[in-house]
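Chapter review: from sequence to fold.
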Amino acid sequence: MIDFIIYEDEERMRNIYKEVINKFFGNNNQSYRIIELSCYQDYKKNKIDELESNKIFLLDIDVPGKTGLELAREIRALKDWQSQLIVITANEDLKEESLTGKMLMLDFISKCSDVKARLMGAIIVAYNILTVNKSIQFKQKGEIYQIKRESILYIEKNLNDNYITIVTRNDKLTFK
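The token string follows.
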């Protein structure tokens, strides 16, 4: 499941984004969902944070109340480094801040120049990042481990304790 979170106050632009997303998936049976936010609301943001899916955010910078950049900072402050962030705005003066603000933005798209084509290109890249060469990530004793799925041969549960062993092509790792 991929969730597209559109954070845009202009309905016309939200409709354009939805059109591009729907065109990207076409007849593909990959499940996806589009969630629209025209302004910042804590309860909606909390529900989005709870989603266990892959997320692609389409963020307008000029949303009243909380800007798209502020929302991006909030997403990253919650240690969400997997979600893909795409900024779409008419305010090109903030391009440098969005790309250098340590927010790991995927793309900055101007509303003034071929939004549909550029957004389609960004969605293709974001989709590939989220679905190609997936890995298993977990944390144990403060250490973060990441193992590529294709390198895992099998996972076994140890019978007498609460440990598992992950057997890869090159290693055998045991974790609680």
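Two observations follow directly from the output. Helices lie at 11-25, 42-50, 68-77, 95-100, 115-131. The mean pLDDT is 86.
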